[in-house]
Design a protein that fits this description.
Elements: E1 4-9, H1 16-21, E2 25-27, E3 30-33, E4 36-39, H2 46-52, E5 61-63, H3 67-79, E6 84-89, H4 97-111, E7 116-121, H5 126-141, H6 146-156, E8 161-165, H7 170-174, E9 192-198, E10 201-208, H8 211-226, E11 231-238, H9 242-252, E12 257-265, H10 268-274, E13 279-285, H11 287-290
Parallel strand pairs: 1-2, 1-6, 6-7, 11-12
Antiparallel strand pairs: 3-4, 3-5, 8-9, 8-13, 9-10, 11-13
Helix pairs in contact: 3-4, 5-6, 8-9
Length: 291
């Protein structure tokens, strides 16, 4: 058993095989539609969700897990013998998940002085958040303590980036999560918006007239950020569009050295806001872990 338990929420969109390999525990976000309530990645899968989503007239909503959800998991981990827990979550600027985790952490530590819970706000989403969780779990398996793990994640927060494009921003707009990218919304045919995240909020990065131009612009942004030939770790993310990620991969690997790649389908809790057909990259420069 690793000395520190690593917890995240389902929005991290980490593939199941990686969750199992590094013993990462996941608290699901809730998805509501009418009287239906699903636990993200527990009661409904990506395949089921992305086939169903375009058929509805009213967009589902999401609800963050409450303190009770977190407390149940924290208590389970404490019962297993963990003395330290690091709980790493989606940006607090678009979700109350971090607050729920913090309340539960306080409740647990009030009852059990032997266990310490550290809650980290990544100010990020998707596999940008996911990368922080994975790297935390890796050093936990190597024996790092909670303080060292939190320090590592905090180093990654300012340099771990997300760039995403989609056929439409309709879902983000309908869900009220579009932030500063509102001006990109329109009915122009073949316009592919590019969005990213800065300081925990969605921001516009531009728009192109075709998918391939959007992919080239993604790669250009990465190259300008880290430098040509730099070494990065990258996750290619998508919603029911895995074949498109290969097109991005080919372009990106011409410009930077990708030392590790993951292909991950966004969880339904995030897909509510992007809709099917979205693609993107989440990456960080390797030097962030070496400083």
């Amino acid at each position: 058993m690793t000395p520190v338990a690593i917890v995240c929420d389902s929005s991290a969109s980490i593939p199941e095989a990686i969750l199992a390999e590094y013993q990462i525990k996941v608290v699901p976000i809730y998805i509501h539609h009418g009287e239906k309530i699903w636990r993200d990645m527990v009661d409904i899968t990506q395949n089921e969700f992305y086939q169903w989503l375009p058929t509805v007239d009213v967009l589902p909503t999401t609800a963050y897990p409450g303190p009770g959800d977190f407390l149940a998991l924290y208590e389970e981990l404490a019962a297993e013998g963990f003395k330290e827990i690091v709980s790493i979550h989606i940006t607090s600027k678009s979700s109350g998940t971090v607050e729920g985790a913090r309340v539960a952490a306080g409740m647990l530590m009030d009852k059990n002085n032997d266990v310490r819970v550290e809650v980290v706000d990544t100010l990020s989403v998707a596999m940008a958040h996911g990368w922080m969780v994975i790297e935390a779990a890796r050093v936990a398996q190597e024996g790092a303590n909670a303080a060292d793990i939190v320090s590592l994640v905090k180093k990654m927060i300012p340099v771990t980036e997300m760039i995403q494009t989609a056929d439409t921003l309709k879902y983000l707009q309908m869900g009220g999560r579009i932030g500063q990218a509102q001006y990109l919304v329109g009915n122009l045919l073949n316009i592919k918006p590019l969005i990213g995240m800065r300081d925990g909020l969605i921001v516009p990065l531009g728009r192109e007239r075709s998918r391939i131009k959007a992919y080239r612009q993604m790669v250009k942004i990465v190259e300008e950020k880290v430098g040509r030939g730099s070494k990065i770790k990258v996750a290619y993310v998508h919603t029911a569009a895995e074949a498109e990620t290969e097109k991005i991969r080919i372009l990106l690997e011409e410009r930077v050295e990708c030392l590790e790649t993951i292909v991950a389908e966004l969880s339904p809790a995030l897909g509510v806001h992007s809709g099917p057909g979205a693609t993107g990259i989440c990456y960080f420069p390797l030097e962030a872990l070496q400083e």
